[in-house]
Design brief:
Blueprint (H helix, E strand, L loop, with lengths): L7 H4 L11 H10 L10 H27 L7 H10 L7 H4 L16
Helix pairs in contact: 2-3, 3-4
């Protein structure tokens, strides 16, 4: 007999209803990531949605710790940047949250077309 897979709880309905992140947007990002990506199963965006939720939760917890260390009750972008710099697994985000010498943040702003 076949055993349930690692993501079966996500797909079998134990997490049902509207998702916290829009699946259509996730699917659009997945397709834009590579020209070779043509078809995406219905389950893949659900798994990505859950992964994004977990990522946001973890980064928020670490950012909140920085807020509490500064004896504040409002989370600021500097707290997020400090959490990213202090956490090795978030090193890929350092160029995005870095603060330039002129005080501008390193977040790239896309022009609306």
């Amino acid at each position: 007999m076949r055993k349930p897979g690692a993501y079966s709880g996500l797909l079998s309905g134990s997490i049902s209803g509207p998702h916290l992140l829009p699946l259509a947007r996730i699917k659009k990002i997945m397709k834009k990531s590579n020209d070779d990506v043509k078809m995406i199963s219905g389950e893949a965006p659900i798994v990505f949605s859950k992964a994004c939720e977990l990522f946001i939760e973890e980064l928020t917890k670490r950012s909140w710790n920085m807020t509490m260390q500064a004896k504040r009750r409002t989370l600021h972008k500097e707290d997020v940047a400090a959490a990213v710099v202090a956490t090795e697994i978030f090193d890929f985000l350092v160029p995005i949250v870095s603060v330039d010498d002129d005080g501008e943040d390193g977040i790239e702003k896309k022009e609306e077309s």
